[in-house]
Amino acid sequence: xxxxxxxxxxxxxxxxxxxxxxxxxxxxxxxxxxxxxxxxxxxxxxxxxxxxxxxxxxxxxxxxxxxxxxxxxxxxxxxxxxxxxxxxxxxxxxxxxxxxxxxxxxxxxxxxxxxxxxxxxxxxxxxxxxxxxxxxxxxxxxxxxxxxxxxxxxxxxxxxxxxxxxxxxxxxxxxxxxxxxxxxxxxxxxxxxxxxxxxxxxxxxxxxxxxxxxxxxxxxxxxxxxxxxxxxxxxxxxxxxxxxxxxxxxxxxxxxxxxxxxxxxxxxxxxxxxxxxxxxxxxxxxxxxxxxxxxxxxxxxxxxxxxxxxxxxxxxxxxxxxxxxxxxxxxxxxxxxxxxxxxxxxxxxxxxxxxxxxxxxxxxxxxxxxxxxxxxxxxxxxxxxxxxxxxxxxxxxxxxxxxxxxxxxxxxxxxxxxxxxxxxxxxxxxxxxxxxxxxxxxxxxxxxxxxxxxxxxxxxxxxxxxxxxxxxxxxxxxxxxxxxxxxxxxxxxxxxxxxxxxxxxxxxxxxxxxxxxxxxxxxxxxxxxxxxxxxxxxxxxxxxxxxxxxxxxxxxxxxxxxxxxxxxxxxxxxxxxxxxxxx
Amino acid sequence: xxxxxxxxxxxxxxxxxxxxxxxxxxxxxxxxxxxxxxxxxxxxxxxxxxxxxxxxxxxxxxxxxxxxxxxxxxxxxxxxxxxxxxxxxxxxxxxxxxxxxxxxxxxxxxxxxxxxxxxxxxxxxxxxxxxxxxxxxxxxxxxxxxxxxxxxxxxxxxxxxxxxxxxxxxxxxxxxxxxxxxxxxxxxxxxxxxxxxxxxxxxxxxxxxxxxxxxxxxxxxxxxxxxxxxxxxxxxxxxxxxxxxxxxxxxxxxxxxxxxxxxxxxxxxxxxxxxxxxxxxxxxxxxxxxxxxxxxxxxxxxxxxxxxxxxxxxxxxxxxxxxxxxxxxxxxxxx
Lengths: 583, 335
Hints:
The complex is a heterodimer. Chain A is mainly α.
């Protein structure tokens, strides 16, 4: 780190780079690539849901032997929903979102020359890349990829006799995820160490932008919970390959009794959701941090209730580790545990409500600058509230009984963590694009992208609640076997049409993103008139971030429109003026 | 609807192309006062659209929802659901209104300075304590219903039925005259003993295996669930009942049917729903549908997960008894 001018080759600069800014771009591009796959898969299975038994040349073209005359096979349907979920949750919304922005912003916003360990950071990205390659590769194997749902509950995921995807496909899934977890742990440790140790002079924890607080707490939850998924996956590998019985007992399949005795799938469910639920917050907290920052900047107002925002991030993080059982109300676990998990789950609504009200209050009497990033942030608040509120139904054990695993759940979690987190990611890309590429993204395209996406997202997920309340289970290849559900077919068509519209709208984003990298208008140093440190670095990236000394910090990040000051923003590196009080 | 969609899609693509081509000429990258104005108005418009969408969905789609609960326990669940839904819609209506209204009202104007308003302990106390109190009420109410539904220990003379899941079929076993199920394990599966009932256990002899569930109205039923291979979930939406079937474990759920199949067929909501379904079926040239209760699988269990169902018939106790007496016991079948 001492030598900022060592000669860089193409390989060290663009491939095996240890510079956090380059690694961040690598995460983003990989995440976007995985996102394209994940979203495209959802288009394919939405076609099947809306028009079962109808032939589509698109399906014929893409699914090869897993389709028959343009109609996908039931196994491939399950494989698509499985890999869609895995890719979106882990590869796009964990690595793509947190990986991109933690890497980009942590050193830049705390005033550090790079991550604590540039090398580990590089290893982290390349492990992620490797796991992505394995996951994508698994799509092309003979029996098809893993197809036991993204939650891979055994015995279905353990027994190739139970479903074809549980052969090599599941092995590759487990290998890919094990590498992914290693990548994510290296990244998270690096983030924690960097934030704790490498803050510039004056950057007290209580002066950190909320983005950094969100990334910090996210990394801690990741370190606490990801290893548990790794252990769950390892035990599953043992059951699958070495004949142990951690999760399996008393199984008779395809005409024979298997030797397994004494294990329980419920154990797997506990281990899986001990990560699985915090994972939701690993996805949403960084988006919350990004949105808080962007709303404050574009409202030209301090974020309302800065300390309450930090407190609620910590409260959510803590509670997130004690609520996993709400995924298991009807798993057969003791009903008393159901009571406990109902209590802890509904508690999360309190810090979530505080955050939502604080964002709304931040808008109040602001001077809103409607940049695309701001639109997506407002959209985030809207979808987060819409999706979060139905958590009151699902988190309440008595009510969960009847909507568990129906489309009501699908609608709920897509709005609250899927759409919202993606909005946070889009907001972050529009906002920090100039910092990443030195150019600006096109505004008009950003507006079109936002409005079509917002209408499409609600068009997809609002009606979907009704499908769930009609009692239709998720992960059904078709509901043709149930005349009872004939009347939701129309709703499913509407949902699919909006899904295609929303998917198509992402092409606008892709075009804008990739064209702007090369043709976008050159960025100025601080285009959004923001207070945070990253906008004090030169537009053209240099290794080490600041050409001279790292500037010292004298104030918090949210002195927007402070009375008595000429401008409506003051950089964190500006010393307090005479007679000015620190906010 | 489909035509409209293709028109919309064509417009989107055309606009996208036009915008992409003109990207090279566009200098604007940061929102101007004009943008703030347009986008603020769009947020107001979207807010109206959003309320419209919500109201439209409730008006248009309510007919597909499940009819009232056919179990006494389910009625309590439904009441809790209505209370929760009213709360959700109330909060949703207010917060979304404020969000879109503020986005419209405070859209940026050149030269105006935003209010420097960083904190208010009073406000924050309000929106911490009010949700906390409301949630405390909801938790207490929810838990009382949960305990009521899940606790079957005080059942008087319950009927015990085993529900047995396997890829991709349901079976059932009634506990017989002794009302006690005989032991069972997959290792006993052989020939027509498809549920692996242990024939050395004397409680097994009078057990009655069936492929259809008949339930007596008004009598509490305790279901015992087993699975032969992978996880399944026994979902009986009309009774607000669901429990996973776990290999190696016996799980339990209990409810008391409150409406016979005939009564449910005569229910107003059911009639409306069935009429809707039959209208659609007639258009497709399919046979009309008659309402029946169903048990369906609600945990991904393999290729034919989407086909796994069993009919449930609720009848008066006398009818039920005569049906049950006409079934062969497992001792009669196996020997």
